[in-house]
Design a protein that fits this description.
alpha/beta; TIM Barrel; 8-stranded parallel β-barrel; 41% helix
């Protein structure tokens, strides 16, 4: 199948990058060199401050490697209500400004974890109260409208393991409660499978809300152990729960075919969570993954 509506890219996450600055992570220059070498032309910014935040410098670095930004990313805790709005917007505005300056059109918004992704320490109740859910939905709508108005970006909300937006029930409830004109969906196939969801069914049911894709797979055997033991997301990643395609689930060709069938242009950004990872591990995986996706028609 010719997936001519799907634009493939990658992200710092596939090089083991979770934080703006961490000695365990791949230096940003090496990431840019290697993501281009692996055959990708689209990238995400990753955590704000990992790549240069001066637009002119970043543009030069990208142009020299024939790379273009597809999106920026922010974490938000909008379920905590209006009291967190000012601090949230201060951070979002920085990321959105840089994202727009790079010519991108999307801002990926990830809800805050309810337990620390590295230590597993519980920082919030696992389930939201009705009032907290309303704050999450209304706050995200407000964010979507203001980001579009001020920066011309579309907010795409990313369901994520160990957050309050993770399972099929969470996602469908959230989509039903939010305005499609303000809030679109970033479907991460790996996180959705990790939390028991069916990506193809979600695309076929809520396709008009899909604005962005992250391509990722989970190892079913490791996932079963993670679920059995209640392992937090960080240690689960360290155990290899997110794996190289096509070794895991979901099967990506049906996902890509369903997305192509929507008849709209979509970014599909490869993300294989690998924090921490040896410095020489990401490039061969990224190269093989790009080759695999080409064999799928993307």
């Amino acid at each position: 199948m010719d997936l001519d509506r799907i634009r493939i890219g990658s992200a710092p996450d596939s090089w083991g990058v979770w934080f703006p600055d961490d000695p365990q992570q791949t230096p940003w220059q090496r990431f840019l060199d290697e993501v281009a070498e692996a055959g990708y032309h689209w990238i995400e910014l990753g955590p704000y401050g990992y790549l240069p935040t001066d637009p002119a410098r970043l543009r030069d670095e990208l142009e020299g490697r024939r790379l273009t930004v597809s999106a920026g990313t922010v974490f938000t805790a909008l379920h905590r209500g209006p009291a967190v709005w000012d601090a949230t917007w201060e951070h979002v505005a920085k990321v959105a400004s840089l994202t727009a300056a790079m010519g991108a059109r999307h801002l990926v918004v990830i809800p805050e974890f309810w337990r620390d992704p590295v230590t597993g320490e519980r920082t919030d109740p696992e389930q939201l109260s009705p009032h907290q859910f309303r704050d999450l939905a209304e706050g995200t709508e407000r964010l979507g409208r203001e980001v579009r108005e001020r920066y011309g970006l579309t907010v795409v909300v990313h369901p994520h393991a160990d957050t309050h937006l993770a399972t099929e029930e969470h996602v469908t409830r959230f989509l039903d409660a939010t305005d499609p004109a303000a809030v679109s969906l970033c479907l991460d196939t790996g996180h959705y499978a990790y939390c028991g969801g069916d990506s193809v069914r979600l695309i076929k049911t809520y396709g008009e809300r899909l604005g962005y894709l992250h391509l990722k797979q989970v190892d079913p055997a490791i996932l079963a152990e993670v679920r059995r033991d209640g392992t937090p997301f960080g240690p689960a990643v360290a155990s290899g729960v997110m794996c190289e395609p096509p070794r895991g689930v979901p099967d990506l060709p049906p996902v890509l075919a369903a997305a192509q069938g929507l008849g709209v242009d979509l970014f599909a950004i490869v993300e294989q969570d690998m924090y921490p990872c040896p410095p020489d591990q990401p490039l061969p995986i990224a190269t093989r993954t790009r080759r695999y996706l080409r064999s799928c028609g993307a």
